[in-house]
Amino acid sequence: MQIKILGCSGGIGGDLRTTSFLVDDDILIDAGTGASDLSIESLAAIDHIFVTHSHLDHIQCIPLMADTIIGMRDKPVVIHATKDTWNIIKNHVFNWKVWPDFTVIPDAVNPVMVYQEIKMGETVELNGRRFTPIPANHVVPAVGYHIEGEKESMVFTGDTTVCSALWPVVNRIQNLKYLIIEAAFAEEEKWLAELSKHLCPSLLIAELHQLKRAAQIYITHLKPGVGEKIMQQIGQAAPELDAKPLFNQQIFELS
User: Fold this and answer.
1) What digits encode the pLDDT tens for the residues 133-191?
2) Which residues lie across from 88 on neighbouring strands?
3) Residue 21 maps to which CATH number?
C-alpha cells in the first residue's frame, strides 16, 4: 500500500496545501486543497473518501470534485464518515445553498456520491487495505484513522488536542510503523491551541509520552509561517522523539 501526502499544512499560500492523503490511486483520506493537484483523470479514479471531520480544510475538494467528475464514472464515490460528521456536511455544504446535493445528482438511483457510516473501532476493508476510525478530540466530532496493510500500519490522528482515549488504542497496534500527529501552533500560542482543540509542542510531547510503541513520528497541520519554529520547539524539548515534519508529495509504503 502506498500513501502519498497531497496536502498537510494548516493553511494555504504558495505551495502549501491542506490535508489530503492519497492511498494507492483510489482512496483519499480527507480531501482538503491538496486533492486539487490531482488530474481530472486521477480525481475520477477515486472510489472512496474517508473523512476525519467536517472542517473546510479537510473537505474542501469533496464538493468541487463531485462537480468535476459527474458523468465520468459508472459508480458513485463512497464518502465514509461518522453520522455526526456527515450530518454537518450534508446540512451545511450539500444543502443546495452552499452547494448542490450530489447524493441525488443526477438522480437518487445513480448519484455522484453515496454516504457510508463509519463507527469508532469498526474496520472497513477494501481489497486487503483496512481503515479503522480511532478517537480524536476536536471542536467538532472527529476521528483519526488506523490505516493497515498486510504487515505494517500507520496512525493518522487527524485534528486533535489532548485525547486520553487515543493512546490505549494506538498502543495495541503491534505492527505500527508510522504515526502522523498534528501540532498546529507554536508554544507561544498554547492558549489558542487549547481554545481550538489543537496541539502545540508541550501538549504534543505530553501526548507522545503515552506512546508505548516504536514508530516513526511525523508532524502535520503546521500553521503557515511558524512550521520551522514549531519543529524547533519540539526538537529542543524532546529530541528523543526524532519527530520530523510532514511534507507535500512525501510517500509512505506499508507492506
Assistant:
1) 999 999 999 999 999 999 999 999 999 999 999 999 999 999 999 999 999 999 999 99
2) none
3) 3.60.15.10
| Cβ contact 183:192 at 8 Å | no
Domain that holds residue 76: 2-253
What is the widest separation between alpha-carbon atoms in the chain?
56
- The order of strands in the sheet holding 244-245 is 124-126, 129-135, 143-148, 153-156, 176-182, 216-220, 244-245
Instruction: State the total domains in the chain.
Output: 1
The pairing of beta strand 153-156 with beta strand 251-253: unpaired
Reduce the secondary structure of 40-107 to three states and give it as a string.
HHHHHCCCEEECCCCCHHHHCHHHHHHHHHCCCCCCCEEEEECHHHHHHHHHHCCCCCCCCCCCCCCC
CA angle (75 as vertex; 72, 80 as ends), nearest 5: 110
Quote the strand ranges of the chain, DSSP E: 2-7, 20-23, 27-29, 48-50, 77-81, 113-117, 124-126, 129-135, 143-148, 153-156, 176-182, 216-220, 244-245, 251-253
Q: How far apart are CA 239 and CA 125, in angstroms?
A: 36
Q: How are the residues of the chain apportioned to helix, strand and coil, as percentages rounded to the nearest 5?
A: 30, 25, 45
- Residue 96: how many other CB atoms lie within 10 Å: 8
Which stretches in the chain have pLDDT values below 50?
none
- Contact present, 248 and 7 (Cβ < 8 Å): yes
Residue 208 is predicted with a pLDDT of: 98
Contacting residues for 165 by C-beta, under 8 A, at least 6 apart: 135, 137
